[in-house]
Amino acid sequence: MRKEQIFILLVALLLAACQGDAPSTPMPTAVPSAAITPLPPTAVPATATSLPPTATNTAVPPTPHPPTPYLLTPEIPVTEIPLAGPIAQRNAEISGLAWYGDALILLPQYPIFNGSGPADGYVYALPRAGIEAFLRGELAGPLEPQAVSFIAPGLSRSIKGFEGYEAIVFDGETAYLTIEASGDGMMGYLVKGTIAPDLSALTLDTTQIVPIEPQTDIGNLSDEAVLLADGRIVTFYEANGAVNSSPVAHLFDADLQGVGTAVFPRVEYRITDVTELDGDGRFWAINYNFPGTKELQTDDDPLAERYGAGPTHAQNDGVERLVQFQYDASGIRLIEQSPLQLKLDNDLRNWEGIVRLGDQGFLLATDKFPATILGFIPLPSD
Fold first, then answer.
1. Which CATH number do you get for residue 145?
2. Per the domain annotation, does 12 fall within a domain?
3. 327 in a domain, yes or no?
């Protein structure tokens, strides 16, 4: 054979050998499906919800949800009712007001302030008709109240540190009064008496003097207001804010026997007098602050924080406002409404007497600061 034929034959033999002797590819052994661990899908990084410590947050913070708005009643100017006679003097120091029928009784802190008349002095009575006629513009002032003899023989001398009468309320012809004293520390007292229907005299029972313990150790504070409710006599301490950890009102029966206490809401500054109850068991209180009373000053006044301050109050550390409460079997609580803020004058007025004048508004009276003032404010219109 020729060389070319031999080479072709050898290539053919080699190709045939490779095809015939190639090993077959083995089939993979089956694995039960339960043993299969699937690969996780490729993860997509989550969007970060917090910044690493070194990062700077450039996002605009969400606007906080505003608190529930409460309508602030506009400040109310006081209409002064000019007075004549001894009660108009600055040293009359009116400390309480109360209605006896249609006569407004004005209680001086010291009924003997005038230094004349009966040994124990006078309280004073002003007819409601005259007050209303003045406010309607039908009667010119000043108005001169009737003097009512005050009879309490030896009472002021029998109480150590006697500092005068603070509040008065009537149940028919029976009168209930509170007294403040500073003998061996501050103390309040409750007494009762009878007023003559012809307004000739108010006579106290000097045989029964009931002590009322103070609720703080702050001087010049005692039970400053009194209320008649459900046949009970309710007295109110002057300081019921943060300085008083457990404010309560004291309860007495008609015979001056203590019958317990009622929890009183937190109200900063002073409570100086209250109105009578209305038909719904509600009453109003004077809430007053004089910045010179250092022990009662605070930057935490919940009423101001919730309702705000009127223009004159925003520019003054003093407070002259009326606050409404509910009295019922469950106790005493604040009514959720804006206090009535009085429009402040150049001098703060130490309001210590208040009564309702029907559905017209309120009559208010000051102690001697800045002078003796009898004033009227209308109820705000709805």
1. 2.115.10
2. no
3. yes
Cβ atoms of 130 and 143 within 8 Å: the answer is: yes
CB 285 within 8 A of CB 232: no
Characterize 291-301 residue by residue with b for buried, 16 or more Cβ atoms within 10 angstroms of its Cβ, and e for exposed: eebeebeeeeb
Q: Are strands 201-204 and 146-151 parallel, antiparallel or unpaired?
A: parallel
The structure tokens listed for 86 are: 């001894």
pLDDT at residue 6 greater than cutoff 90: no
Q: Which two tokens stand for residue 249?
A: 């009102």
Residue 262 lies in a domain: yes
Range of the domain at 176: 80-373
At 244-272, the pLDDT tens digits run: 999 999 999 999 999 999 999 999 999 99
Q: What angle do CA 72, 77, 79 make, to 5 degrees?
A: 145
d(CA 365, CA 109): 12
* DSSP state at residue 87: G
Cα–Cα distance, 341 to 339 (Å, whole number): 6
Query: Could you give the number of structural domains in the chain?
Result: 1
Closest CA to 96 of 242, 222, 198: 222
What is the pTM for the complete model shown? 0.81
318: enclosing H helix or E strand? none
Smallest Cα–Cα separation from 262: which of 331, 328, 326?
Answer: 331
Report the SS3 class of residue 357: strand
